[in-house]
Amino acid sequence: MIHTFGDSNAIYPWNSIHLDDASINCHQLVDKTCASFGMDKIDVFNIKNYGVEEGDIVCFIFGMIDCTSNNIGKNKEIYKEITNRIIENYFATIKINVEQYKNLTIIIECVQPVVKDGSCKQVAGTDIDRRKYTEYFNFKLKKACEEYKYLFLNTYKKYCGPDRFMNDSLRDVNLHIGNPEFLIAEFINILK
Prior knowledge:
The protein is an alpha/beta fold and 192 residues long. The chain has helices spanning 34-44, 64-68, 70-73, 79-98, 127-148, 181-190; strands spanning 2-6, 24-28, 57-61, 105-109, 151-153. Helices cover 38% and strands 12% of the residues.
């Protein structure tokens, strides 16, 4: 069984993906950001309450809201410090959840490219700011995955247009991946 946990990106496009050898159980944690997930610890969110069992694959998909709203963008001068703290707490909470099991495969999905022109209610800073926040956030996700020995599902460049914003031809009507082709290919690739 594959479980996705996160903001709306844990639903879209995962709910449209069909794999021959595994089913996907999508869990959207409404109103949860990466920052709040990390701060709440296991008291608020425990994967055992969502039917995760030994041997399952668990994919965490948080960060889009943090990178495009005021969590990071409220103070442009210290966005790296804010991001570092968010990532540190995020991974500490994931670790607490994972330590309840002996055999889970943990995947952290990158934050997908931001949508250009501030559409889809993205509110923090300029398009360039949000892209910068997202790219730094993904850099820190990758580093933390290396440290914690989690798999990093990085499809960021696959979904970027030439300007490093979301390729409009690959997104849905909002800010999610619309065509999961690259997501599926990379997901299968990192599990090999």
